[in-house]
Amino acid sequence: MIASGGQGNSQGSSQESRARPGQRRMAQWTRDYVRLPGIPDEYIADNGAPRPVWARFFDAFAALSPADIERRFASADRHLHEAGVTYRAPGDTSDRIWPLSHLPLIIDAADWRQLAAGVAQRAQLLEMVLADLYGEGRLVADGAIPAAAIAGSSEYLRAVSGIKPPGGRYLHLYAADIGRGPDGRWWVLGDRTQAPSGAGYALENRLVLSRAFSNLYKSMNVERVAPFFEAFRDSLRASADRDEPRIGLLTPGAFSETYFEHATLARYLGFLLVEGDDLAVSGDRVHIRTVAGLKRLDVLLRRVDSNMLDPLELDASSYLGVPGLVEVLRKGGVVVANMPGSGVMEARALLGFLPNLCRRLLSEDLMMPHIATWWCGQKSAREEVLSRLDEFAIEGAYGRGVADFPGNGPVLPGELSAADRDRLKDAISHRGIDYVGQELVRLSTTPVWENGRIAPRPFVLRVFAAATPSGWTVLPGGFCRIADRADARAVSMGDGAVSADVWVVSDKAVETSTLLPAVDTVRIRRIAGVLPSRAADNLFWLGRYLERAEATIRLIRALCTPLRDPARANSNGSAPAMHSAERIQRMLVAWGAASQTARANLAKVALEALQSEEKFGSALSLVRSAQRTAISLRERLSPDAWQVITEMADRLAIEVHDDDGVVSAAELTLQELASFAGLAQENMNRAAGWRFLEMGRRAERAVNTTRFARQFAYDEAGDEDLDVLLTLVDCQITYRSRYLVQPLLAPVRDLAVLDPYNPRSVAFQVAALNEHIAALPSLKEHGLIERPQRLAVAVEAMLTTAEASSLDVKTLFALEQDLLNLADAIGLHYFPHGPNASRPEKLTGLA
């Protein structure tokens, strides 16, 4: 017994010693954490003690060493950068890296069940209100909703009134912005019914944080989000009128503030990412312009505002929509989620009427309250607000912000000057329909990690609900935005806020889930689906930009390498003759890579051509053009391919100061370009998308190689010029293995231009182009050869029958023009733009 007791004490001491570092760390983190007066907090409960779910999290978190924690934080940040997770704040002209809080927002299962029930009830209520507003109109007729509260909203679309939504629903996806009210319960701060954003970022937040803290994530039994997205995808499929529908996600384009999210959702859900220009109306259907002709689209998940969807019947100035879309909706030809006009339910003017509407339509009270709101379009409410003006926050009744006052948030009359306060009162008195008064509230807080400690910061949680045949399914988690100031009254991603993953924690183990269905429920197919013309266009130009950057970098290296390393000079061991260097510089100037004034200084030409911000033809500018093009292809590029392009752009932006630095940067970039080419060859499915990427590369390489040959294999070219050409087309070793003599004109011309076995020759590129064009579907029904193939066959025939001795400068220039015409013909044939774009294409609406 004594020995047993001694052993027990020893184990207890050991456990205590192991616990002490974690306990000390925990005490250090929380020492200065003070709940803000009168504000609910996620970590500290009303009784002043940590909530059990947070105590459980921090106990596990404290088991990690400080070094391990920082390493995992750095891993999360690095993933965001390498994966290119970005957003664009309002007014920005460039993307920002997505700001992710290193701590999640944690909610226990019991709390979440109440929250989810309230969100599902609210979604159903708003669906029923929308059905009445655009249908029978009983609510307005009976006075349950004032007509002015609806008519005052620009989101009420009369063109849609009376249309029964194809698929049977107005709302397919609903979101509520929520926070804890003064009583500690969850309160609704706002409804999102237009085209709710944030679900894609919520998914990305989960991927990043669950990887950085994988063991902690598993031990906390966090509810998985994949079943929600699966239910949402299946619901959209079921809403269509055929078994295997084609679903598109309509985006405003790459300049949208949340374009990354659109690409993420399209890739994750398996939808086509389309822009308005990709779509065309024919008959009673919407079709996608693809490289194989028009293909029927069954469901459109929109991320474009309602009034921009159809320039014929809605906003005539819109370039984002599809002419004729509303008429197709009348005919039931396409499902649009959410239905145009659904954004009317976001109006704050309607908030005060929802409790009575809930009792009328659902025969029950609202489960989740919202901020007390007085719509000033009613006399009694207006007088109430004006009599106690300093006790309210004034908001726009139908949009963010208040007209004629700065900012997008509420106006606090108590903080205004006397003149501004009077101006606000006059505005409310004369046109109260545009204003609401809302109860003054401050956002509840959640812990964030700051300088090795936790601190309370205000947050807003956006919770998503998807309509399914069995009811509303709520995402177990959400999109959380956290302010960077302790006194924030509103949180926007453009105001220095960060986002956080949301963990709904269960008391028992959760099942691992995936969006991939069971193998036996899916019909096997080997082609990924249709390729929109816009995507093909971007792939084609991505290949051209990268190949053009490679050609520029090879010129830079040829100009600088001999000065840096005499051992790597031309065949006779000396630097290039001055006329060869002059030709290289002249090409770089002609290509827009360097300025005419820099030609007197070889080093300056090389430096400008490598990383000039102003020169459109510099290597940096070309890689950035490729990066911008790749942004429009996010749903089609692998993370590795995107990372290579990002690293190239980052590397070329690092300032260099001498020839050695220029050549080093050039060689590293050439290696990265080779890496991208390898990824495309080995990892891309051999479908139409890969072919257009390859066609862009082959067309550009053929043009550039012809230009190289014209400049350095002219009739009087000496061995110095010919040696430069062999270097530019990467054929030094091949030439020397074939010919045991110095570079001679005819063999060099043959190798660079005519040799079908040389993967860098013009002939090889044209043969590859011909093969790709022949493999693409014909857009004409008469069976005649189409123009791109006709040009490619003609150029290939010329190269096949030509002799090296006949390739003078005039012939090479004519070949260059033929290649440029071929590239243009591909673009005109497969990539028409605009609603009036015409081309011969078959209508394959049932395909």
From TrEMBL:
Name of protein: DUF403 domain-containing protein
Gene3D superfamilies in the cross-refs: 3.40.50.11290
Domain DUF403: 531-831
Source organism of this protein record: Bradyrhizobium pachyrhizi
Region (Disordered): 1-26
Highest taxon of the lineage: Bacteria
Residues annotated as domain Circularly permuted ATP-grasp type: 104-483
